[in-house]
Design a protein that fits this description.
Blueprint lengths: L1 H17 L7 E2 L4 E3 L4 E2 L2 E2 L2 E5 L4 H12 L7 E6 L2 E7 L2 H8 L4 E2 L9 H4 L4 E8 L13 H17 L1
Parallel strand pairs: 1-8
Antiparallel strand pairs: 2-5, 3-4, 5-9, 6-7, 7-9
Length: 161
């Protein structure tokens, strides 16, 4: 009787601590493919997400130098394996709106962090759409593997700076 009570109480406490997955944080080691991002043609897109270990201003400067874009919310046209692809970048507000459910946990260190930077977007999220409006980050897309390789290369080039 005592052993059964102990086992039952232990299981209940474990259930409370784990909370059925509620409150769990998502860590992004290399990259993470999130579902239900921005919509195109009434279809929610997947997004390639990586941790921004630089400050937000650094990312904006990089995007201006590489693609000539400014601001927080922008799209960029590229070619992947000869196919035209539109990359959709997420602003902090969009990132919070679409991916809040993942409860991403920032693990990077930013030197001399200020209160404003604490509220900054510590993750970069990118969706990719082909010329027909299809999600190029859907595993069934013909260039899915090439898209992952392209975005990984983009991430490595940016973080190297």
């Amino acid at each position: 009787m005592r052993k059964a009570l102990f086992v039952g109480l232990s299981a209940f406490l474990l259930f409370l601590v784990n909370g059925c997955g509620a409150g769990k944080s998502t860590l992004v080691d290399d990259y993470f493919i999130a579902v239900e991002g921005k919509t195109v043609s009434n279809k929610a897109l997947n997004a390639f997400i990586f941790e921004n270990r630089n400050n937000e201003l650094h990312f904006r400067n990089y995007m201006r130098a590489r693609f000539g874009v400014t601001g927080e919310d922008f799209d960029v046209d590229v070619s992947v394996n000869g196919q035209p692809i539109r990359l959709l970048f997420y602003s902090k507000n969009d990132f919070d709106r679409y991916f809040e459910k993942y409860n991403f946990k920032y693990t990077g260190l930013v030197d001399d962090i200020t209160a404003d930077q604490m509220a900054a977007n510590h993750f970069v999220a990118i969706s990719a759409v082909d010329a027909a409006g299809n999600d190029a980050l859907d595993e069934s897309h013909i260039i899915y593997q090439e898209m992952i390789a392209f975005l990984n290369d983009f991430k490595k080039q940016y973080l190297r700076l």
